[in-house]
């Protein structure tokens, strides 16, 4: 006899468990596969049970962004704060590369949730302790976050420099020389990140 799926509040089911299952499903099959009905099937509960923990699809998507943010070690900014912001950028990039199906969501959705706001507040407090005014600290975080997300989005279609390699660039000698440069994709990311962080530091 097949057990019936649980209706209403499932014993032991939490918002955290729902979001973890949603993240696993999105990682495995992409965001298009994510629905309340499908998520209920993954958790062996009725779809309506999910609504006790996330009120709608938008809240579910916000929760996915929240899960990714939570997977990054909380940034700690000592003096100089540039070291901490570099570490944050590298950790964010690693998290995005680990969950490529979430990249379009991260790029298009601010996901202003209580947990994400608390994470941001903690980062601002740490940066203020390292000598940045709150407004400057927020601009630094947003600038670096936008840079990392943009780099990952661009790389998701293939590294643009690597795509030059098979081309006949005989008419473009400088471009040909640049395309054969010593840096791989990760080294180019770090090079650009260092330039950005150094520039942000020099504006103060």
Task: Give the helix/strand layout.
Layout: H1 15-29, H2 36-43, H3 47-50, H4 57-70, H5 81-98, H6 103-108, H7 114-129, H8 134-155, H9 173-179, H10 185-202
Helix pairs in contact: 1-4, 5-8, 5-10, 8-10
Q: Describe it for me?
A:
This protein has two domains: 15-55, Homeodomain-like (Arc Repressor Mutant, subunit A, Orthogonal Bundle), CATH 1.10.10; 74-202, Tetracycline Repressor, domain 2. It contains ten helices and no strands. It has helices at 15-29, 36-43, 47-50, 57-70, 81-98, 103-108, 114-129, 134-155, 173-179, 185-202. The mean pLDDT is 88.
Characteristic key phrases:
63% helix, Arc Repressor Mutant, subunit A, mainly alpha, TetR family transcriptional regulator, 204 residues, DNA-binding, transcription, HTH_TetR, transcription cis-regulatory region binding
Tally of individual domains: 2
| Overall pLDDT score | 88
Secondary structure class reads: mainly alpha
Largest sheet: none
Under the CATH scheme, which class of the largest domain?
Mainly Alpha
Into which percentage range does the β-strand content fall? under 5%
- Measure the end-to-end span: 69 Å
**Relevant CATH superfamily of the largest domain:** Tetracycline Repressor, domain 2
Briefly note the CATH topology name of the largest domain: Tetracycline Repressor, domain 2
Do you know the CATH architecture of the largest domain?
Orthogonal Bundle
Low-confidence stretches: none
Number of strands: 0
Helix content: 55-70%
Our Rg estimate from Cα atoms comes to 21 Å
Q: Total helix count?
A: 10
**What is the ordering of alpha helices and beta strands?**
HHHHHHHHHH
User: What spatial form do the alpha-carbon principal axes imply?
Assistant: flat
